[in-house]
Amino acid sequence: MPELPEVETVARGLNQRVRGDRIIQAWFGKRPQTFKTPRARQAKGLAGLTILAVHRTGKHIVFELGAEAHLASEPAQNDATAAAAQWIVHLGMTGRLLVTAPDCPLAPHTHARLDLASGREVRFVDPRRFGRLEFRDLRNSSAAFEAPGAEPLTIGAREFAGLFRNRRLPIKAALLNQTLLAGVGNIYADESLFQAGIRPRRRTNRLTAAELERLRLALREILTYAIRLGGSSVSDYVDANGEKGFFQLEHCVYQRTGEPCRRCQTPIRRIELVGRGTHYCPICQR
DNA sequence: CATTTCACCTGGTGGC
DNA sequence: TGCCACCAGGTGAAAT
């Protein structure tokens, strides 16, 4: 399931491959749930725009789009002031965003295709349809997209502690709440709690300052390392080039129920928390 | 308001 | 081999 490292990997791949390209026209499927902006408005809005840059915010992929053609090397990354519009893609559980040749066979559950001036296509494929596509025309008073929560890679110690100090919910539930931190999902919540030695059910307001700081650093380290390995390919995740990631080989607890802890050999335990499978080591995490 | 539960989806899995 | 119940989980709406 795409979380911050997977979404970052996809966004980087897209930025490398389609930055500077121009959208000739766009096609959209008929499943209404996929479209946060009505499909007709997306198709009309995207046609003719140039891709200035592609980047990640939280779990969202943002295409910065310009009304005029720019040199691919010219626009600064994240230069929202130059952007006339944005195309915002959330991959949900099973979403894929791929750059393909036009004669590449159309995968089942393809919900969107962008025809590019270079002759290639950007395709959005999503069997389970938890993904979302949104178009924002910044020329029409729409605000630029902002993720609701803080960025786990750059948040400071004081702000991080402030997010959790006055809450009573389990720390794992807090990590999954995108309005607090943006980008952490089930895999990296479990992995970072293991690394920090904290049990998932612990109430956030009962965590010590030292524990919160361990958690902040664990998140940063794990997310950074996972990005370097191209993310975790559990389920059917692949990047914009169709390549799998390798961080799943590094998992210490996620989907390792009953297997020995890599640190102390105790069998990894699985519980259900806020409706999610949750994995931890009963010895290493307190 | 804070927190918890549930519906939305389909492919893969395991039991018989 | 085939059938089917069941499960995975990101998000937002509804319930508590």
Secondary structure topology:
Elements lengths: L3 H15 L4 E6 L10 H8 L3 E8 L2 E7 L18 E6 L5 E5 L9 E7 L4 E5 L6 E6 L19 H8 L6 H6 L9 H11 L12 H20 L40 E5 L2 E5 L6
Antiparallel strand pairs: 1-6, 2-3, 3-4, 4-8, 5-7, 6-7, 9-10
Helix pairs in contact: 1-6, 3-6, 5-6
The protein binds a DNA duplex (16 and 16 nucleotides) through loops.
Q: What does this entry look like structurally?
A:
The chain is an alpha+beta fold and about 290 residues long. The protein has 2 domains: about 140 residues, Alpha-Beta Barrel (N-terminal domain of MutM-like DNA repair proteins), CATH 3.20.190; about 120 residues, Orthogonal Bundle (Helicase, Ruva Protein, domain 3). The strands form 3 sheets. Strands 1-6-7-5 form a 4-stranded antiparallel sheet, with helices on one face. The protein has a 4-stranded antiparallel sheet with strand order 2-3-4-8, covered by helices on one side. α3 packs across α6 and α5 crosses α6. The protein binds a DNA duplex (16 and 16 nucleotides) through loops.
